[in-house]
Amino acid sequence: KISSVSALEILDSRGNPTIKVYVRLEDGTLGTASVPSGASTGSNEAIELRDGADRYGGKGVLKAVENVNTEIAGALTGKWATDQRVIDDVMIRLDGTENKDRLGANAILGVSMAVARAGANISGLPLYQYLGGAGTPRIPVPCMNILNGGEHADNSVDFQEFMLIPDGAPNFREGLRYVSETFHHLKSILNRKGLATSVGDEGGFAPNCKSNEEAVELITQAIGEAGYEPGKDLSIGIDSAANSFSPNLNNQYDLKWSGKGKALSKDLIDLTGKWLDNYPIILWEDPLSEGDWEGFAQFTKKYGDRIEVVGDDIFVTNTKFISKGIELKTANAALIKLNQIGTVSETIDAVRMCREAGWRYFLSHRSGETEDSFLADFAVAMDGGHLKSGSACRGERLAKYNRLLEIEHELKGHSEYRWS
Ligand code: PGA
Ligand code: ZN
Questions:
Q1: 3, 29, 94, 229: which one has the fewest Cβ atoms less than 10 Å from its Cβ?
Q2: ipTM above 0.95 for this complex
């Protein structure tokens, strides 16, 4: 049973405050968890409670900390940590709002994750097994964002993420090596071209490319120079994060890359067709904005049998929007982020809904992260076959990949590694 719940204000990978939660059980067992934070958010995400005023530029989380230490602690003390769903329901009811803005989704999620950890610890199981149950665990194929643009970098690239996907590797350990080697070859190519090799929020390079297409060309070149075969050993995934260049979040787009300027959904859909013919792309996330449901459906109709079409900002890990997407054939996969919805149980509900509809689901970190590797275990437990946690660089990104290496190692060959 839970004997205490408390929280602390810590800093995330961008140097902004976030929350770390400690859940202690009567026998002394401890569960802790830290909460991530996004930059290019969907407008229907659960709300992070921030203090406002001057401290940390308004981004402090002392109110959320206080809510954990008082109201939430009061409601959960004496409850069984292994009753995850009961605990999450108590917090949802206690908050009482649609988007968790009273107690804060950051406060609620921190507790929800820390309770899961405490539950795993007292059960004597690794977190992935506690949440995932029996069966041969699948280590997810990493989708590694090695070139950053959009709101994650101060450069000329509109699309936010260019991900390398080692779907042809025999196991996770080798897949990670393929990407790391290619990442270093990409650095050499950028150096040769006189382009910047500083990195963006997710550890990918953030060069000032001449166009969005140059970014995908450079990556394909790096795959070859690293000695791998594009489309066989390594594939590419893109997250346009189109909200960030759609000022009114509708079907109109404002691209900074040279000579393009304004674009409509149709222009972006046509561009995708050309890229799919020329590059080994197997996944495309948020090709259009969260208000462009019609464009999304056309995109999926056109390319959905060739690639995984993922909705992130449009679905925000919320079964209300995912069910609409399933009905309207808006995509064929949903991005899954714990802090978009705010509890472990509701995140599992989103995964279940995708699974039952024959959709894929794609576990994800946020651009603001901590050293907490909860996501790695969670992704194994959810068995989605792939996850994204940024590039082969920056400690908060590697914390998740290193934990996956550890899980694969501990399982001594009794694990799978496959995309689908
Ligand atoms: P965010 O970006 O964490 O800044 O929202 C990640 C994504 O768009 O997938
Ligand atoms: Zn996204």
A1: 229
A2: yes
